[in-house]
Amino acid sequence: MSYDRLLSPIKFGAVELPNRVVMAPLTRARCPDQIPGAMQQTYYAQRADAGLIISEATNISESARGYVYTPGIFTDAQEAGWKQVVDAVHAADGRICLQLWHVGRIGHEMVHPDGRKPVAPSALKAEGAQSYVEFEDGSSGLHDTATPRALETKEIPDVVEEYRQAAVRAKRAGFDLVEVHAANAYLLQQFMATGSNQRTDAYGGSLANRARLPLEVVDAVIDVMGADRVGIRLSPFIEIFGLSDDEPKAMAFHMAEELNARGLAYLHINEPDWAGDDIQLTDDFRQAMRDRFADGALIFCGHYTAERTENLIADGLGDGAAFGRPYIANPDLVERFRRNATLNEPDPSTFYGGDEHGYTDYPRLDDA
Ligand SMILES: Cc1cc2nc3c(=O)[nH]c(=O)nc-3n(C[C@H](O)[C@H](O)[C@H](O)COP(=O)(O)O)c2cc1C
Hints:
Helix 2 (76-91) crosses helix 3 (156-173), helix 3 runs parallel beside helix 6 (212-225) and helix 7 runs parallel beside helix 8 (283-292). The protein is α/β, with parallel strands linked by helices. The chain contains eleven helices and 14 strands. Bound molecules: flavin mononucleotide. The site of flavin mononucleotide (FMN) has 22 residues, from strand 4 and helix 10.
């Protein structure tokens, strides 16, 4: 089968993509000092023929962190590290977007040198969720999340400001786009979901109130980048990390309409079954999102193959797909799709942490 639609160009706002094969954001936890370095330059540059690379989730501040060895974008050294990654991707003719991350309650005081508590919409523990911490003896591993502290209303503008500053640094580092991570049960989705948000101020209660923080963040990032260089990731219906929501569909529709009105470059939906949930999105839902987010690019993610994406585009339900695990194991994924070649299998034991092994040493077709 040939994938003419998948391999055809598209615009994400101001950015021209040569194809619709997007590299999904993938945390790899290989930045012990929170600064991307030479290994990250090699890894991302190897994948530069993706239509667009979306970076691993990147902490916008110290409070935003829930996992050790993940990179940040809140110090000069982190910004300089990212600039070198961006330069390496651009030198290889690629395009790269930074995913802005705040974990909210998926954290633990052990992650922070000053022992600060994780913050969240409400002081409700993420049941069954784990944070990645460093223990006193220097070893690292998963640890149950801590009960968070509810953000005070007067602190919320500071959180928005952290996103804005992160976008300022992303722009200076040369990123083509910025993606607001409002998916996967992290801070912004914790605000949107009824199960994690029991606030009684302007950021809780009604659907519009629960959407307020994510939209304020989007507006702040738009102020910096321009709407045509901003995307967002949502994961309606997802139930990982103890998240529950009584109104996921209504929230998804509301967000799609609000984001469309703002002229956002793209909307990225991570489907709920990617992490083992049995809930599956229907084509009716995808179509309803397409109708509401009519002007920007719409992409989906989670168990997509080249064939499935080709059909998605042909059916008018989306403009492309992001590929996660396939990109871990196939630096030349676009070329493999073009040649209809078999894919390398990813090794989950090297997903998080470690060194070049399982990171920059997956073979390309031409190595064979
Ligand atoms: C190792 C690993 C790390 C991930 N890190 C992130 C991340 O940093 N940000 C994010 O939004 N999603 C993250 N995800 C989810 C992926 O972006 C993607 O949604 C998921 O893997 C489903 O796509 P796939 O079936 O093509 O792998 C991660 C997934 C994996 C397997």
